[in-house]
Write a structure and sequence with these properties.
The complex is a heterodimer of chains A (499) and B (293). Chain A is an alpha/beta fold. Chain A folds into three domains: 23-99; 130-242, no CATH class; 266-294 and 326-498, Rossmann fold (3-Layer(aba) Sandwich), CATH 3.40.50.410. Chain A contains 21 helices and six strands. Chain A has a six-stranded mixed beta sheet, with helices on both faces. In chain A, helix 3 runs antiparallel to helix 4 (63-74) and helix 8 (151-165) packs across helix 11 (209-242). The radius of gyration of chain A is 31 Å and the shape is globular. The radius of gyration of chain B is 24 Å and the shape is elongated. By secondary structure, chain B is an alpha/beta fold. In chain B, helix 12 crosses helix 13. In chain B, a hairpin with a 3-residue loop joins strand 6 and strand 7 (163-166). The chains are: A alpha/beta (499), B alpha/beta (293). At the A-B interface, helix 3, helix 4, helix 11 and helix 13 of A face helix 1, helix 2, strand 1, helix 9 and strand 9 of B.
Chain lengths: 499, 293
């Protein structure tokens, strides 16, 4: 039993607040929270106060607990955690005990720097004791630290590596990624990984494929840790050089839900893809809920009479039949031309995720021709394979492979138009940049007459609409709604609106 | 109001004693929840021990756990309180013969005697410090969420006929969510947030060691490693901690001492629940140079 039994009556104020916040820390926390807000995290005033209260209960100097205390009170969405972590590292990187940038270690750092400089001067390292290792020794240390998975040693290696290879100069206006690249290039981690695997094989004898796979994962995991250490070291040095606020500003990244589909990096794209699946699950859950609770069905005469018996034949409690659940049928028509390539890839993932959640989803892709791709998504295990098939096999080029919405819609109307019924929701995804072809917007109008809903999702910012060859306005006139969907936040808003 | 825990470390030890292996973050947030007297909102993938956390904490404290399982259509009458109208009817009927006036009766039948307490009210009115678990809070509708707000921030319940019932003690409240929908800002603001993710390698190994009797350290280590590798593959449903434990138990029952490829792929169906996932994972495991997707 760990619950402490503090004698009753011991007041809260007496027991709590083992330490009061100093002005300096208060100031720092304030700046920290302002930076969080600037990064897009919705930190309310109450949460701010909670955070200030929470840190009082944390043993001073315990960096990890400090981080969790702030995290639990300020970050209420898991996908914001990374942004929080970055800001935290910047603001408090110079303050942990294990990072020990007290007076004297700062001096040590400086001395080392001078030593390095001096060595660079006469080209030849003095080599030898302590921190001044030769490159071979450092490489060996790196190898050993990864072999053993020793985090203390990794930290040391990371420090050394950054000091030696990153070539950081005070005041130089380059980002952290540049230094990271330089450091990693010199470390040759891929080579090290191979060596590690070789070593494992040598010591453990013949190994099955699975064992090799497990080793590889383990070493990759360790290398990932080293990677983080190096990043932290670079950040620490940059902060020391440029100051906290400037650094936080350069590191500011859009939150996952604000990443623009059109300009997402590969890593961001992977994260986006992961986020899609829960989103469609949400959509499905919501639709179902609406279907069950939306409205009541017609009067159930039999049950009403039966219920009236207990009131002497007066039908005080009318009974209703369960509503006829309407099964949504979704048609997705997506532009996969070059101008929206990044968005298109995302769209296809979305289509795949949707088709897993709804019973009746049909998907079509077009550039200047149009083709149905529903079968490509059926029963596939690997979405990437399906996307690849869509991109290579679907017959979407009619003349020259430049978007022609008019013709594509024409083909759709001719071939699949009769399939649209009163229960169909049609979603058209594209930027409506039509290369000055005929718009044929009457098709959209016809669709709207027949279908339940027609929505247009446009990955371009609203201010670009109807500029140049974009004719989204002409189509949007006939839709039940047209939406700018450039990031997850907007997509979620659309989903919320939809049901 | 005395605090329940001395510090985060001792809480962590306590949890370990009841076989719940927490990490620094989990213990730290629960400790803070007690100090700040705030509820904890626990989110994370299914099967990572969110509900178990509340159970274990109540076990550590040796107190009662009051549980409210949320579902669609949960309403006031099932979450907060309800008037026991049958008893009220009886009361009125038994009065008929006497010369009681209406005012007296109505005052009488809206008293605590005729109140049926439901989990939330029960947690508040309990004389002893209890742990309240509101499970899968994301299942209720947004409108119903509002029911919780008063109790979560002020620890009180307002009953129109009776007035406000204030807490005799502050319960330690856990809310869990599988994140099938975004919870309202108002709810989140009132809670501390804790994300429980899949444990790291060492913790998972320890969990397997404590939960699976008779397993060798070597096998536990291997189990944890294989599971970690499988989680890196893009699957419909990654294996949860409970599935890891089930798998480890199976391996022990089968008398496996070292996991070979064959045993692994034969028993994958315990770890993974989709046919496509099983195929994919089996394929991944035997390709040594598998660069995970």
């Amino acid at each position: 039993m760990t619950a402490t039994s503090i004698p009753e009556g011991s007041g809260r104020s007496a027991e709590a607040a083992p330490w009061e916040l100093g002005d300096a820390l208060l100031e720092l926390l304030n700046g920290f929270i302002i930076e969080l807000r600037a990064a897009g995290l919705p930190v309310s005033l109450t949460e701010n106060l909670d955070a200030l209260e929470a840190v009082k209960h944390i043993p001073i100097g315990d960096r990890e607990s400090f981080k969790y205390a702030l995290g639990a009170t300020l970050v209420k969405r898991h996908n914001h955690w990374k942004a929080f972590e970055t800001v935290f590292e910047v603001y408090f990187s110079l303050r942990g005990r294990e990072y020990a940038i007290g007076e004297d270690s700062e001096r040590l750092d400086l001395e080392d720097g001078e030593l390095d400089d001096a060595r660079a001067g006469d080209q030849q390292g003095a080599g030898g004791a302590g921190e001044n290792l030769s490159p071979e020794e450092l490489a060996e240390m790196l190898f050993q630290s990864l072999m053993r998975g020793d985090s203390q040693m990794m930290k040391g290696v990371a420090r050394q590596a950054v000091r030696r290879f990153a070539g950081m100069e005070p005041g130089r206006p380059v980002g952290g990624t540049y230094y990271l690249y330089r450091t990693l290039r010199n470390l040759d981690l891929d080579g090290v990984l191979e060596r590690l695997l070789q070593q494992a094989q040598d010591t453990q004898g013949e190994a099955s494929e699975m064992d090799q796979r497990l080793w590889r994962d383990e070493y990759q995991h360790r290398i990932g840790r080293l990677h983080k250490e190096i990043e932290a070291e670079i950040r620490r040095r940059l902060v020391a050089d440029r100051g906290i606020e400037a650094m936080a500003k350069t590191l500011r990244r859009p939150l996952p839900e604000d990443v623009d589909f059109m300009h997402a990096s590969r890593e961001e794209m992977v994260n986006l893809r992961k986020a899609i699946y829960p989103l469609t699950r949400k959509l499905a859950a919501r639709l179902q809920r609406k279907r069950r609770h939306g409205r009541r069905g017609p009067l159930d005469f039999r049950r009403t009479v039966r219920a009236s018996l207990s009131y002497g034949g007066v039908p005080v409690e009318p009974k209703f039949r369960n509503p006829n659940p309407h099964k949504p049928e979704i048609f997705v028509i997506a532009d996969i031309s070059g101008s929206v390539a990044a968005f298109a890839r995302f769209t296809l993932h979305l289509v795949y995720a949707i088709s897993g959640q709804f019973s009746r989803v049909r998907s079509f892709v077009f550039i200047d021709g149009l083709d149905e791709v529903t079968p490509y998504f059926e029963g596939v295990e690997d979405i990437n394979e399906a996307v690849h098939r869509v991109n290579t096999e679907a017959d979407v080029v009619w003349v020259d492979g430049h978007s022609d919405y008019g013709h594509a819609l024409g083909v759709f109307w001719q071939k699949y138009g009769p399939d649209i019924g009163p229960r169909t929701s049609v979603m058209i995804l594209g930027d409506a940049r039509n290369n000055y072809h005929a718009a044929e917007s009457w098709i959209v109008k016809e669709m709207q007459d027949k279908a339940r809903h027609v929505y247009w999702l446009n990955p371009e910012p609203r201010s670009y609409w109807d500029t140049g060859d974009s004719i989204v306005g002409e189509y949007a006139r006939h839709c039940d709604g047209s939406f700018e969907v450039r990031n997850l936040r907007q997509l979620e808003a659309f989903v919320e609106n939809l049901v | 109001m005395p605090f329940r825990f001395e510090d985060a470390a001792s809480l962590r030890d306590g949890l370990r004693r009841v076989d719940y292996l927490s990490d620094e973050g989990i213990a730290g947030v629960v400790y803070l929840a007690d100090r700040l007297q705030k509820p904890v909102l626990v989110e994370g993938p299914a099967g990572t021990g969110k509900t178990q956390l509340a159970k274990s904490v109540s076990e550590v404290l040796g107190t009662r756990l009051i549980r409210l399982q949320c579902y669609e259509g949960l309403d006031e009458a099932k979450a907060l309180y309800e008037w026991n109208y049958k008893k009220q009817l009886l009361r009125i009927q038994s009065d008929r013969s006497d010369e009681h006036d209406w005012a007296g009766v109505s005052e009488d039948i809206f008293s605590e005697e005729f109140l049926l307490t439901r989990p939330l009210l029960e947690a508040i009115s309990a004389p002893d410090p209890v742990v309240l678990l509101i499970d899968e809070v994301d299942r209720v509708e947004v409108e119903t969420e509002a029911l919780l707000l008063e109790i979560l921030s002020d620890y009180q319940v307002s009953i129109p006929e009776l007035g406000t019932i204030e807490a005799k003690q502050i319960p330690l409240v856990f809310l869990t969510s599988n994140n099938t929908r975004e919870l309202s800002e108002a709810l989140k603001r009132r809670c501390l947030y804790l994300h429980v993710d899949y444990p790291d390698l060492e913790r998972e190994k320890e969990i397997v060691l404590t939960k699976v009797p008779g397993i060798t350290e070597n096998l536990a280590d291997q189990v944890a490693r294989v599971v970690r590798s499988i989680r890196q593959v893009e699957l419909k449903k990654a294996p949860s901690v409970s599935e890891t434990i089930d798998w480890a138990k199976t391996l022990v029952l089968l008398g496996v001492e070292k996991i070979e490829e064959q045993t692994a792929s034969d028993t994958l169906n315990i770890l993974l629940k989709y046919q496509s996932d099983i195929r994919k994972a089996a394929k991944e495991l035997v390709t040594a140079d598998g660069v995970s997707v």
